[in-house]
Amino acid sequence: MLSAEQKTFYGENGYLLVENAVTPEQLARLRDITYRLIDGSREVTESNEVYDLDKGHSAEAPRLTRIKLPHKRDPYFWELIRNSRMTEVLTDLLGPHTNLLTSKLNTKAPGGGRAVEWHQDWAFYPATNDSLLAFGLMLEDVTEENGPLMVIPGTHKGPVLSHQANGYFAGAINPDDPLFEPDKAVTLTGKAGDMTVHHVRALHGSAPNMSDRNRLILFYECSASDAWPILGASSYIHSLGQRAYWADIQERQITGEPQLVPRMADVPIRMPMPPAPDTGSIFKTQESAGAKSAFSS
């Protein structure tokens, strides 16, 4: 799927834009499922295991920040990551044995839908090596106005910045950090069906959605199967017993087989501790810990 030039670009910059990552038929089905899920939030008044509600949400005008774990809400989301052009991109970058860490459908509401403060995914879930990435499949066109993903090239080769605020792991860097260079950020816009890829250590964020339409991006966070999580990472997996965890690994296997010999790499790590008062989502983590915003006026 990927050319040698694309692989080299990803290796040097830590991000990539892949055009037409799904077929028109796949895109149409994804959008149909997504809008049905959004419609289903009309009867919801508080965030729950499926929906993260944004301020101003109502039955008449649904406003969401996220649909959680879409691959568990409709099997088509799981089918797609396992059997599509995205699967080819995944194995091109991570090798034949890959796992799904999590999925999320960010439905940033129009007219000020919430920003995602600058962060590195690696700060949330350090592992024995950094062969991890995130896909962001655009379900509608993404423009400058509706809060596109921004990435700072090359930061996947640098340090893990502090994500602490007020004594908590805040899931966001301090925008006053001297190593934060927002003037170098690249904005990733594209057409529906295009996909962004960013390395787990790449520094990224997104501004509020100031357009008059939802920003719908389906995210899959994936790892090479020989990248094993380190105890203390902010993940549900540490609440599982050994047998349940083994079953869970197999359920999340995208391609290939589980790898029982972790690959150890010399990579920088900070532990995401102590947890913020509310760790229900990245939005709640950042808000409840009092992370300083890079996007406030």
**Alpha-beta content class:** alpha+beta
Helix content: 10-25%
Which shape, going by the Cα principal axes?
globular
Total E-strand runs: 14
Instruction: Write down the CATH class.
Output: Mainly Beta
Q: In sequence order, what are the helices and strands, one letter per element? A: HEHEEHHHEEEEEEEEEEHEH
pLDDT < 50 stretches: none
Strand content: 15-25%
How confident is the prediction overall: mean pLDDT? 94
Q: Work out the oligomeric state of the chains in this entry.
A: single chain
Short synopsis of the structure:
The protein has 297 residues and is α+β, with helices and mostly antiparallel strands.
Task: Explain this structure.
With 297 residues, the protein is an alpha+beta fold. It has one domain: Jelly Rolls (Sandwich). Helices cover 22% and strands 22% of the residues. It is built from seven helices and 14 strands. The strands form three sheets. Strands 1, 2, 3, 4, 6, 11, 13 and 14 form an eight-stranded antiparallel beta sheet that branches. A hairpin with a 2-residue loop joins strand 8 and strand 9. The longest helix has 17 residues. The protein is globular. The protein starts with a helix and ends in a 9-residue tail after the last helix. The model has no long low-confidence stretch (mean pLDDT 94).
